[in-house]
Design a protein that fits this description.
With 268 residues, this protein is α/β, with parallel strands linked by helices. It has ten helices and seven strands. A seven-stranded mixed beta sheet has the order 3-2-1-4-5-7-6. The termini are far apart.
Length: 268
């Protein structure tokens, strides 16, 4: 197991929701507004996670049906609890080998997932296979290379100051292709058409330091996994460093920003 992957813990749905799912919900609204998918469409969500984007699709886009897949049994179980809508079904699945019929979906969406797929070209080929002609694909990932995840960048900056080896685990090193140009090029190279890209920026405001820190102690995701792996004294040193360095508003909240790169395109 590689140094970077050993800290990925993607089974605990509630823990991930506290760490990242809540921010995915914030991004979902402007993303879906920009995607402008038709009503009464059959959707597939690749990497549904705990159901953050799924719930927004059902509330906003009037789909006829939604199938959500994720490789994590824990996430799928959480999505089923979070999204009790008769139009939606959730199942364990692999983006690189979709168990759906050819040309069976009108829209495919994916949130914060594509960077974790080992063979992104294969996943996009599978998405094209299940999309109907002219079908719509939309996905987004965080702008890791540009420091777009302020709360994660703050965590890793503090961690690397105390432990230089932590710098090798940062998402900007692991996912250098998460840029506007590279993501658009990936879509074009997959044979998709009418490729568009845009930045989506949203606030990630934490009520107080505990609201910021607690998700990092739950072990779901690379940074929380790293935090959970530390001996108590080293974890406390990291906590103290962050509490000292993070910005504060007058009310004690921690105002940070997040930026995602979004892509939309049409199937041939």
């Amino acid at each position: 197991m590689s140094a970077s992957s050993r800290h990925d813990a993607w089974q605990a749905g509630e823990s991930y929701d506290a760490y990242m799912g809540r921010w995915s919900r914030v991004v979902a609204e402007p993303f879906l507004g920009w995607l402008a998918a038709p009503a009464e469409a059959d959707w597939l969500e690749v990497g549904c996670g705990t159901g953050a984007l799924s719930g927004a699709i059902l509330a906003r886009c009037a789909p006829r049906s939604l199938i959500g897949i994720d490789p994590s049994e824990g996430f799928v179980a959480t999505a089923r609890r979070n999204v009790p809508d008769a139009r939606a079904s959730f199942e364990v699945g692999d983006a690189q080998s979709l168990r759906l019929h050819d040309a069976s979906r009108d829209v495919v969406a994916s949130a914060l997932v594509l960077n974790f797929v080992p063979d992104r070209g294969k996943a996009l080929a599978e998405i094209r296979r299940v999309l109907r002609p002219g079908g719509l694909l939309g996905f987004y990932v965080w702008d890791y290379p540009g420091g777009g995840m302020g709360f994660m960048r703050a965590f890793w900056t503090a961690a690397a100051a105390l432990d230089p080896a932590a710098g090798e685990l940062t998402e900007d090193r692991r996912f250098p292709f998460c840029t506007q140009e590279d993501l658009a090029a990936l879509a074009w190279s997959a044979g998709l058409q009418d490729v568009e890209a845009r930045a989506i920026e949203v606030p990630t405001a934490f009520r107080d330091f505990d609201d910021y820190w607690r998700p990092f102690t739950l072990g779901a995701g690379p940074a929380p996994g790293y935090c959970a792996s530390l001996e108590p004294a080293r974890r406390e040193a990291l906590r103290a460093r962050l509490e000292q360095d993070l910005p504060r508003a007058a009310d004690g909240s921690i105002p940070l920003m997040a930026r995602a790169w979004a892509i939309k395109a049409r199937n041939a």
